[in-house]
Design a protein that fits this description.
Length: 316
């Protein structure tokens, strides 16, 4: 299976096409083994995302908040919240997701539903999670979510109405039992915007040499504040994140047989080939050449010519 990413724009907003204008919703099925470095790249979206972990243990990070979820647990992320997902252990992690425009819930901004049952909770927290732990409401919530996943693609004359019905039931359960007790987290729109600016700078300039001062200047903060803030929000230093990102991009280039290791190292911002090989092996357990060979064998077993096809979006 070839590496996947969530396509994003310069503001790290997902550019995935979701459903249709009359019915803006889509279902995805994913396996973290299919993503570079086994994690979903940082992104945000203009829609609500609800996912159910089917297998393994995942770590969901929404800005600075990290939460570990196991099979049977679900999470909800509101629009415009930067987040990522990675393995919580060495196990395979499979999960299903519905991403939908919240107008399917509230109709239009300013409506009674929007003000009382959507906006209030969106402003309180960007992230919630729940699980089928035996409580009646949680079991019913997971059942409604599972129904949506099972029946979303059916060619039923009432498909859209039934999906919306189960979304409304799920939302009512969350409003009654989860949202009211959600509390608040230390998070603001300014912090979200600043995080996006810093990440975007790293994504745009990862091939180049740049200084901490230049990174900090992109967000109009001092070098000290840049390090402190980045560590707080991303749980890595800027340089640790940059290394992860460079390695991820190099994995994509290793699919292309016409590029040698020296060229890939230079194209992804590594100062020397030896450092690139050392960093790559420390992260993956293989040298770049060993990784390329294994990917070639894997691709051939799937009748895919390496470097000619690459999945870049979440899988339905």
């Amino acid at each position: 299976m070839l590496d996947k990413i969530v396509p994003v724009d310069k503001d790290l907003c997902s550019t995935l096409l979701l459903g249709t204008y009359p019915f803006p919703a889509e279902i995805f099925y994913d396996n973290l083994d299919e993503y570079a470095n086994n994690f979903v790249n940082w992104h945000q979206q203009k829609q609500v995302e609800i996912s159910l972990i089917l297998e393994g243990e995942a770590e969901v990070q929404v800005l600075e908040k990290k939460t570990r979820l196991r099979a049977g647990e679900a999470f909800l992320i509101f629009p415009d919240a930067l987040h990522t997902l990675k393995k919580g252990s060495g196990q395979t992690v499979r999960y299903r997701t519905i991403i939908f425009d919240p107008v399917l819930l509230y109709g239009y901004k300013g409506s009674f539903y929007y003000e009382k049952y959507y906006r209030t909770f969106e402003k309180a927290r960007p992230f919630y999670h729940f699980a089928d732990t035996g409580e009646c409401w949680e079991k019913e919530a997971v059942e409604n979510l599972s129904w949506i996943f099972a029946h979303f693609g059916e060619a039923s004359p009432h498909r859209e109405l039934l999906v919306c019905e189960h979304l409304q039931r799920l939302w009512l359960l969350l409003c009654k039992n989860l949202f009211d007790a959600g509390g608040k987290i230390d998070y603001s729109a300014q912090e979200q915007q600043r995080t996006a600016v810093l990440l975007n700078f790293l994504h745009e300039h990862y091939r180049e040499k740049f200084t901490l001062e230049q990174l900090a200047a992109s967000a109009h903060i001092s070098k000290g504040e840049c390090c402190r803030f980045f560590k707080k929000m991303v749980h890595m230093t800027p340089w640790e994140y940059l290394l992860e990102y460079r390695l991820s991009r190099s994995m994509e280039l290793l699919e292309k047989k016409d590029l040698n290791i020296s060229e890939i190292a230079e194209m992804t911002g590594f100062c020397t080939v030896s450092y690139y090989i050392t960093a790559f092996k420390r992260k993956t357990g293989d040298t770049p050449l060993e990784y390329r060979k294994k990917r070639s064998i894997s691709a051939l077993s799937q009748n895919v010519l390496p470097g000619t096809e690459r999945t870049v979006t979440l899988t339905k």
